[in-house]
Please model this.
Amino acid sequence: MFDTVDIGRVDAHRELFEKVARKLRSGQMPPQDRPRPEQAAVTAFLSALEAELDRVSAAAPDPGRVVSHRLNRTEYVNAIRDLLALEIDGAALLPSDMAGFGFDNNAEVLSMTPALMDRYMTAATKVSRLAAGTLENRPTILSYRVPQSARQGARMGEELPFATHGGLAARHTFSLDGDYVFKLRLRRAEIGESILGNIAERKYQIELRIDHALVKSLSVGGKFNGQVKYDLTGGGISVPDDDLVHQQIALYNQTADKDLEVRLPIKAGTRLVSAAFTDVAPSASEGEGDNATAGVVTLEIGGPYGGAIPEETPSRQRIFVCRPDSPQDEKPCAKKILGTLARRAYRRPVTDADLQPLMKVYDIGRTARNFEAGVERALEALLSMPAFLMRAEAEPAGARAGTIYRISDLELASRVSFFLWKSIPDDELLEVAARGGLHDPAVLAQQTRRMLADRRATRWMNDFLGQWLQIRNLYTIEPDPLRFPDFDATLRQAMIKESELFFESQVRDDRHVLDLLRADYTFLNARLAEHYGVWNVYGSHFRRVPLEDPARHGLLGHGSILTVTSYADRTSVVLRGKWVLETLLGAPPPPPPPNVPPLKENDGKSKPASLRERMEQHRKSAVCASCHATMDPLGFALENFNAIGKWREDDDGAAINSAITLKGTTIDSPQAFREALLRQGDEFIRTVTEKLLTYALGRGLDYTDAPTVRQLVRDASRDDHRWSSLVLGIVRSAPFQQRIVRPVEPQPPAATTVARSR
Model:
């Protein structure tokens, strides 16, 4: 209500006027059915308003404040990998993290509760034993599973060997040198327990490999070869009339895989284990639908049995940087080991005060057993320390509320590392920070570019993309198998992989941010290419493919996005329109009102109505009309893609009309829709900048951050809005390098700390 506001005092109403600027820039105001000024007048007013907002911000800066918080699960897993060269299953050790402002690295939601601390301490016990390779690693059985819906008639992935089909590959950590039991279970019919693939008649060869080397070839099936015939015309199995043989075959169909078990000696370490059918026998799906294809459903790995401490593993090399030659050398060596590990884990140089509690724990373990046991116990303590688990930045002593200060170089190193690597800094970055080198903008830029070029940068790319575009939600979506029988776990994974490889190529090739929408290439394997109707793509490996169909250009042609913005049984113009508004244009609609009536579905009795016709009936409700008038056209523009991203011309027999009018322009194809969005390129660039800044800081943005966003966009425009310019701009920005002291708020009574002994 502007009649209650002194519009001459922008400084007194910054939050309000930032909302005004956003509403005008996105075209949300004035409403579509009300008089509007000429666009030139809007642009001039916006430029003047934002310039004044920027001037006011410069006079009273507020870089914000990231509160102390714990490592989230992804960061913990990566930190363990980088610290100890150990791959762990984070989902088995820690609960998933809540998201704040769209990302699960938001500091406000990463608090440490007593129950969660107990989980981190349990994880520290398991991790320290695995890394050090102690005899306290007891035999366990882990099961790796292939989804029942997965197609297994072809090579299942790039980690599996050529000339194989079906099966699976998994990275498994063998805790000790010793014997391990590998057991396979084959896929069965959903009704009954019969193994699929005409197992009684056909003989299959399954290769078991460790780190790509063949360790065992297993045979299964074919016991009743010649007595069972597969009817290629009728789709059934005929058996002899003899009841006894019939019973034997039925029993064999249920138990043929009982002997698919082998015990092998394996050296400790994380290794790639794979099991797959060879292609030397007839195809596993020959003459059958995919639902009848022979396949592996589980691979169980049990052990170690007769385990022995390994002489050397990558993890032990990281830990034992020295070896004592005599009992007198043990304590100095242990101190060196723990000092080396603590420096990386704590992300700073360590002092005697840091090492003293660790050495006390070492003494306990050394007294109980031996030198290595003492180191392992101290490592467990290190991984439970707040200095490792928590990210806290110190305030200057005696600083008053409102004081703005630059964080230390070591704290800045952690911010950059957790942004670009989702993990702890490496030795080079720590050494530069310890010397105070990150104060130099040129040195900071050099380190940032080095880290962007590193393979570890793929972590932030995949993590940011999956949360920003919501494509990681695809793991929880199960399209209706009756309406979409083509969809399976293999296609789901291919969709996600396409988007990840595409985004990585955009960043690593340092392309214009708008190329996310207009790029004329993607990454496909045979399975996804078939789904898209792209020919001459063979095999399970992904490769860059030029796109002839302009409807598939850019992110809007990706099956991952089109599927995650649909319902299980149909498309949703509302979900897709809402996704475009909030994810690409930064203009989310308000939440729906209560008691919204459901969309009327086709009943199969009368003539089918298209989704557009049903939505028009839905919008007749005055409660629904205002928001749907904005969202629905954006979703209708993508209506030629079905609920799993496949092109179509009709919807259950009803012709699809995807034409819309957007800002006075008729849009009649995905290509025209993409070009319309590109005409709003400034809003897309601004939204990407806001999302990436939110992710990099680990906190939500508010009106005080809007000037920073505008400055980042202006600076990146000088370098053609390349990704490197955007990332470097964020790392150089005041919110990334500075903090403000907030008034101290009353704290609740401190919880009692309970020390837990092993």
